[in-house]
Amino acid sequence: MTPEHLHSSGAGPGPAALLAAAASLLAVVCYLLAAARLRRRGDAWPYARDLCFASGGAALAAAAVLTPPGGPFTAHMVRHLVVGMAAPLLLVLARPLTLALRALRPGRMRRVLPAAAHSRPAAWLVFPPLAALLDVGGLWVLYRTPLWAASHDRPLLQAAVHFHVLAAGLLFTFAVCRLDPVRRRWGLPWRGAALLGAGAAHAVLAKSLYAAAPYGTAFAPADLRAGALLMYYGGDLVELALAVVLAVQWYAAGGRSLARARRRLRAAAV
May I ask which residue range the UniProt record assigns to the signal sequence (predicted)? Predict the structure, then answer.
């Protein structure tokens, strides 16, 4: 969970913030235990994935309980970038679904998880344009309607907003990176177009926030500009990282295609 509303009115983090941090760290512990279980039985699992997941979980926990420097809007944008963009990228790079499928013992959960991943609803949820709409479209609704201001005094609405920011960021990153097994693996054109469109919409939103504060809020002009600039350039950095993931996948796919073509030529020459 992200914004400053998770904190109590006192000096320290509130109960909701502590619960969010604890849940993030518990997820890290479960991941590391599952990875260790694979290695004990002789299966390979890169330690770099452990590092990615631990970093992502730690970033989520820190965003919940720590107050970033700067004004309130700038601090909020730091949390937005961490929870909605950077942490999801780290978590997805760790391939948690693949780990779960390999580490779970035979049983009901081992059957339910792949069935859910290969279901028709899951295939459409990871349709890259739809995932981009849910992610960046949700941010437009949050910042350019009365939703953000209305959520300040409604705990359940706050919780829904916070959950959406994280879930939509994870869904979009999952759909673009396409690292874990799902029913339909959308191709590079779909994923690249969704990344470009989401990046453009995110940048336009950041520029609009530079000019005008979210509805129903009153931030100092310097704080508003700093937060908007952070959103703009920080978003570019995460989107560049996603583009690098796509480029590596395209390069690897091209190498595999070339190797298959060479094998066919050698077979035909024999």
Answer: none
Name residue 121's amino acid: P
The three-state secondary structure class of 190 is: helix
Q: Which residue has the tokens 């690292």?
A: 179
Residues 34/243/133/235 CA torsion (nearest 10 deg): 90
Q: Is-contact 146 161, C-beta < 8 A?
A: no
The β-bridge partners of 13 are 7
The model's pTM is: 0.87
Q: Is 71 exposed, middle or buried (0-12, 13-18, 19+ CB in 10 A)?
A: middle
The DSSP annotation for 88-128 comes to HHHHHHT-HHHHHHHHSPSSHHHHHHHHHHTSHHHHHHT-H
Give pLDDT tens digits for 123-181: 888 899 999 999 999 999 999 999 988 887 787 888 888 889 999 999 999 999 989 88
For residue 95, report the phi and psi dihedrals to the nearest 5 degrees: 55, 60
Closest CA to 50 of 18, 93, 88, 11: 93
3 state SS for 35-92: HHHHHHCCCCCCHHHHHHHHHHHHHHHHHHHCCCCCCHHHHHHHHHHHHHHHHHHHHH
Decide: residue 40, CB within 10 A, 0-12 exposed, 13-18 middle, 19+ buried: exposed
Q: How many CB atoms lie within 10 A of CB 134?
A: 17
Distance CA 93, CA 248 (A): 13
